[in-house]
UniProtKB/TrEMBL annotation:
Annotated PANTHER family: WUSCHEL-RELATED HOMEOBOX 1, WUSCHEL-RELATED HOMEOBOX 1-RELATED
Record's keyword annotation contains Transcription: yes
Domain Homeobox: 62-117
Record's protein name: Homeobox domain-containing protein
UniProt keyword Ribonucleoprotein present: no
Protein species of origin: Brassica napus
């Protein structure tokens, strides 16, 4: 009796197979799982609502809001004759204005462009400005 079967006395072993048991309460377990999941979801939503009341969401605007210092500096630049600065000059202006708060080169560009349209609109009788 040598070989692979010698360790168990020569008996042949059955192959292992998984057994599937049907549970008469499987429908009840499914309902319980669903109720448990819903309770957990409701608890998370309630916690989120409570945290929002304690810490209201911060409104963030994508629109640039110039500070009084920004406006003063931009008006000085405009009074000095700068109307359509080059890209490099606009970057320099923007770098200087950053000390007064958040600003981008496009803000400088559009502010100066808007100032240029005011006299044109006034000449054309448009008094919205």
């Amino acid at each position: 009796m040598g070989g692979a079967d010698s360790f168990n006395g020569g008996r042949k072993l059955r192959p292992l197979s998984t057994r599937i048991y049907s549970c008469p309460t499987s429908a009840a377990n499914t309902n319980f799982d669903h109720r448990f999941n819903m309770a957990e979801q409701n608890k998370r939503e309630l916690m989120m609502l409570n945290s929002e009341t304690q810490h209201p969401p911060v409104m963030v605007s994508s629109r640039w809001n110039p500070t009084p210092d920004h406006l003063k500096a931009l008006e000085e630049i405009y009074q000095q004759g700068t109307r359509t600065p080059s890209a490099d000059h606009m970057k320099q202006i923007t770098a200087q204005l950053r000390r007064y708060g958040k600003i981008e080169a496009k803000n400088v560009f559009y502010w100066l462009k808007f100032q240029n349209t005011k006299p044109v609109n006034a000449r054309n009788g448009d008094d919205r400005w």
